[in-house]
Amino acid sequence: MVNRHSISMPFSGGKAPPWARLVGIILYIAITFGLAYSLEDILPRAAEIPLTLFESLAFLAFLGSAMILYYQPIPKVAKLILGILVLLLLMPALGLRNGYYLEVATQVGIFAALALGLNIVVGFAGLLDLGYVAFYAVGAYLWAFFGSTQAGLVLTSIKDFFPLGGEWFFLFLCLGVIVGGLAGILLGLPVLRLRGDYLAIVTLGFGEVIRVMVNNLDKPLNLTNGPQGISPIQRPPLFFMPLLQALGFDLEPRQIYPIYFYLLVILIALIVIFFTRRLDDSPIGRAWIAIREDELAAQAMGVPLVRTKLTAFAAGASFAGAMGVLFAAKQIFINPESFTLMQSIGVLAMVILGGMGSIPGVILGAILVTTLNLQILKALSDWLNAMRQAGTVLNLGFIQYAMKNLPVQLEPAKYERMVFGIVLVLMMIFRPEGVLPASRRKLEITANRETPPEAVSATPPVTGGGE
Amino acid sequence: MPFFELNDVHTYYGQIHALKGISVKVEEGEVVTLIGANGAGKTTTLKTISGLLRPRQGTIIFDTHRLDQLPAHKIVAMGVSHVPEGRQIFPRLTVLENLEMGAYLLNNAAEIQQNLDHVFQLFPRLKERVYQPGGTLSGGEQQMLAIGRGLMLRPRILLLDEPSMGLAPVLVEAIFNIIRELNQQGITILLVEQNAHMALQVAHRGYVLQTGRIILQDSAKALQANEMVRKAYLGEE
Amino acid sequence: MQTETVAPTRAVSRGIFSSQMLRTLFAPLGQLAIWTVGTAVVLSLVVLLLALIFRTSSSGVDRFTLVLSILPQVIVDSMVLGFVYAMIALGYTMVYGVLEFINFAHSEIFMIGAVVGAEVLISLSEAKALENFNPLLLILLIIAAGMAVSGLVAVVVERVAYRPLRNAPRLVPLISAIGVSFFLQDLVRMLESIWRNAFYRTYPDVPSFSQRISFGDTLDVSYKSIIVVVAAIVMLLALNYLVGATKIGKSIRAVAQNRATASLMGIDVDRAIALTFLVGGALGGAAGVLYGLRFSTINPYTGFIPGIKAFTAAVLGGIGNITGAMLGGIVLGFLETFGASYLSIFTEGAFGAEYKDILAFGILIIVLIFRPKGLLGEVVGERA
User: Fold this and answer.
1) Continuous H helices in A43-75
2) Which of C182, C351, C365 has its CB closest to that of A191?
3) Residue among A194, A292, A377, A418 with most chain C CBs within 10 A, to mutate
4) What is the rounded CA–CA span in Å between residue A50 and residue A392?
5) How many whole angstroms separate alpha carbon C140 and alpha carbon C151?
6) Residue pair A135/A322 in contact by the 8 Å Cβ criterion
7) Which residue of A457, A459, A463 is the best one to mutate when testing the B interface, meaning the one whose CB has the most B CBs within 10 A?
8) In this structure, are residues A339 and A142 in contact, taking their beta carbons and an 8 Å threshold?
9) B37 — contact with chain A (CB < 8 Å)?
10) The domain containing residue C140 runs over which residues?
């Protein structure tokens, strides 16, 4: 453990003694939590003050405490206790205060799990998959189909069985793993022989094929209900309701479900993290790294190329399948809009931002990109709108701009693509190993950057071997 | 000031220190050879001169101009022509197009024609194959094409990298005769060879490279007589 | 990069100069004509034969008459679409030929051309200047505007997002290109939102373009379709000339075959690569304008689907091969239009035009798996 992170030790804060760190992190958690919880009471209400933006940033800082905690060299018990405190108590408390926080945290968890799955394919095995969200769609439609009346429309003879009861959800969560993995193998078999850039385009094509099919398979058989999507979808039952009531918590299902799903996502995310870490350290993990670094050499060493790539594809896809089932149950309603190329690129941006192959990095990427998309862009939009409505005049000293002249179409909330794009380009140019690089990956990329003879001559690019 | 000079040149491949301070002088009209084993830094030296690699330290001076910070295409324009190792002809272009590519920097059709005639005079074989794609030529013909292409700009100094590599003995002989002829026509030549025996026969002076350093320099005659050179590079006991 | 014919040699071969030159220019066009006619004939025969075999539908419609009646229109539409794909595909193939890199952002270069064309037309229309403009001049103006902006954007993109990564592992510039693609989509959206407060743009109606010529009962062709095809052919001729017979083309071809050696010939490699992006981008921009003229409504996300299809066309023709990209575009245009037009007739509406995008991806996957060299053979990669 310690060894693995010896190369990069972010947030470690110099050489402070453990007790000081402990106090520091507790203070940090307390302050960020306090700000996220009570900013709306503290700040005066005025159009010029971007309250939601500040709140989002405070919330982001609070989410970040989990990451910072992870890197502190403080006793494991303290880490564990603080971690449980943050994730299981403070976060739901914030959620009861403002439901949107919990929604964002749940989405962060879902995307973190998705990104960890894609990380296996892109980060570990070095296969660029641009249609990753297709497997997510497969899982989501699997449960949506059977967990709603949709299946009854097709299987008319046994239509009374549907929708399946909520308790089936847990079985389908496992089925999602299997079906996702199978879909990965089915796609992978024909295309994994292709060279890296062709593979990227073909997976992109596959993602689009799935999206078009989902959009149009309302005829001849109504499998997906087309663009309207499927709704309502069964949620897992609240089997612990009597227990809660016995304990004296009298909460409505409306209040419980967000917290329930949040906890479920945290649990699954932890399972995913556990599996990814095991995979990373396993022989198959090393085989992935081997083919990523040099296919030919790996083959020469006896690594079966297609089978190794297939396992990576299947493993990544199975995570996505399971998360899809969860997503369908959480949303109650799904349609093809949730499974576009933009989603795939978004997950890719998380992996790239955090650091390909780096588990903490990918989680950080998921936190940053998701909050940026769901909260910060939206907050910017709200702020501009508020100022527009209030007729604020911006005074920038040398220039004055009446906000009511701002075009209505200019809505920052809609610029997720720009965010993804900027993340991808900047990371590739300035820090391809990511914000929190995997120790192995970092070595590899610095080595790659230095070794080829071309690197010496920056301007005249040349190919061809050396001596 | 010498016609052409490398002064304490250091070149790196990433972390690998390939040239550790190479200093070479070539006077106008000379044939100078660099000999040495695989990986000694011979090709790296030529690539550093022609701008394919950039030295991290040291200077390269040609006829009062500094070459070491110029990009490759500007170095060619100054009259330094590099015939790379392994021929590196354009396989899908015809012989004629390959030669024309060598004259890329010339705009005067008459001048191009004149240089073309000169090349065909040196290599009549190429004239027979004018419209054949370069990739379909034999190894020897490709080497002729590569040299011919390098001559299309009428260079003042020609850098030849392993011109005899992979050729049959008869062809090796022919190539070295051409080198002699070119030199008699007044072209200065810096020749890199593993075939030290042949190289020292055509050269006036030679440098012996080993792991990025020059370990010996002398007239070609003296090198041929040198005990160490005879053992290590001429294969004599 | 390969041009099918061998460039003429000005210096020695003065005698055969003119005929060589003509071959460079027109041989690819001849090939294009043969493939266009060939594809049209083969696909027509296939659908007619199918219609004869499954002549009567369950509702009693005579499929043969139906198929035959729309056939001329389908062929014209196929050609229009095919030429648009061909022009976009050239940008992918040229960049791939030189850098062995899929310029994912090329679809946005295409989209920018379409947006620029729309904005020029809209501005003229708002200034009430459309009517007194010579139609031919108008066409030239909007195409030139689209080409200029798209070409410049392509060069800037190369300089900023690709050149620093030229020696990085293969996937790094590809990921950067995907980023550029997404960035440009929203950048155009943002600029249009600020300037026009709208980012869905419609090409204004130009009366002289909207006329149609009728050929018998079954076929009438709009001027727009003719403009698209003629403009595309002129562009392809110009490209052949540029790549096959000029010094710029020579430098581009040399860099494609062997970058290091090209620089030893005195070719400025960076400049040649920038020129490749300029030419490919300009063609993409022209294609964007033609696409906009023909299909009217565009938005910042218009580029993605035609882009991916044009890439399919480039792969289909043999990526890196200029003539191949043109043929691939034509063939794909035909396959897609025939599929979209006839699928629902034969499946009684169960599957229809909505699956045409899948068709293109299916072709892409099949070609990559079974014949990655494409119709004319991949020529990059094999280096001396």
Assistant:
1) 51-71
2) C365
3) A418
4) 13
5) 16
6) no
7) A457
8) no
9) no
10) 73-344+351-370
Tokens of C261: 């050696």
State whether A454 and C166 contact (CB < 8 Å): yes
pLDDT digits (tens, 9 = 90+) for C299-355: 999 999 999 999 999 999 888 888 899 999 999 999 999 998 888 888 877 787 788
Q: Packing angle between helix A51-71 and helix A99-119, nearest 10 degrees?
A: 50
Phi-psi region of B236 (alpha: psi -120 to 50; beta: other; left: phi over 0): beta
The answer as to whether C3 is a domain residue is no
C300 φ, ψ (degrees, to nearest 5):
-65, -10
Cβ pair A441, A433 in contact under 8 A: yes
A432 contacts on C by Cβ (under 8 Å): 168, 172
Task: Count CA atoms closer than 13 A to B165's CA, side-chain side.
Answer: 18
Give the C-alpha separation, B9 to A225, whole Å. 71
**A423 Cβ neighbours under 8 A, 6+ residues apart:** A349, A352, A353, A369, C179
What is the number of domains present in chain C? 1
- What does the mean pLDDT of chain A come to? 83
- Note whether residue C111 is domain-resident: yes
* Amino acid at residue number A244: L
Amino acid at A459: T
Which residues 243-272 in chain C show a CB within 8 A of chain B? Answer: 247, 250-251, 253-254, 257-258, 260-269
CB-based contact C224:C291 (threshold 8 Å): no
Nearest CA in chain A to B36: A467
Interatomic CA distance for residues A43 and C249, integer angstroms: 64
Q: Is A306 in CB contact (< 8 Å) with chain C?
A: no
- In angstroms, the Cα distances linking C259 to A460, C252, C254 are 9, 10, 7
Structure tokens at A124: 């570990």
Task: Find, among C260, C320, C307, C240, the residue nearest to C1 by Cα.
Answer: C320
Q: Return the pLDDT at A457.
A: 35
Q: Is residue C376 part of a domain?
A: no
Which tens digits make up the pLDDT trace of A390-424? 877 877 777 778 777 788 778 888 898 999 999 99
Query: For A415, which residue in chain C has the nearest alpha carbon?
Result: C186
d(CA A159, CA A151): 7
Q: What whole-number distance in Å separates Cα of residue A84 and Cα of residue A101?
A: 17
C253: CATH: 1.10.3470
CB-based contacts of C208-214 (< 8 A; 24+ apart in sequence) = C208/C135, C209/C135, C209/C293
ipTM of the complex: 0.90
Q: CA-based diameter of chain A, in Å?
A: 79
Report the 10 Å Cβ neighbour count for A252.
7
Q: What is the nearest CA distance from B198 to chain C, expressed in angstroms?
A: 26
Between CA B133 and CA C249 the distance in angstroms is 18
N residues, chain C: 384
Q: Per-residue pLDDT for C383 more than 50?
A: no
- Mark yes or no for CB contact B73/A450 under 8 Å: no
Contact A453, A370 (CB under 8 A): no
- Please name the residue of chain A whose CA is at the shortest distance from the CA of residue B16: A451
A208 interfacial to chain C (CB closer than 8 Å): yes
Residue B236 corresponds to which tokens in the numbers above?
């004599």
Q: What is the pTM of this model?
A: 0.88
* β-bridge pairing C297-298 and C201-202: antiparallel
- Average pLDDT value over all residues in chain C: 87
C139 found inside a domain: yes
Residues 6+ apart with CB under 8 A from B117: none
DSSP H or E stretch at residue B135: none
How would you label A211-238 residue by residue, b for 16+ Cβ within 10 Å and e otherwise? bbbbbbbeeeeebbbbeebbbebbbbee
What is the side-by-side order of every strand in the sheet holding B80-83? B80-83, B157-161, B188-193, B31-36, B205-210, B213-219
Neighbouring chains to C with at least 3 Cβ pairs closer than 8 Å: A, B
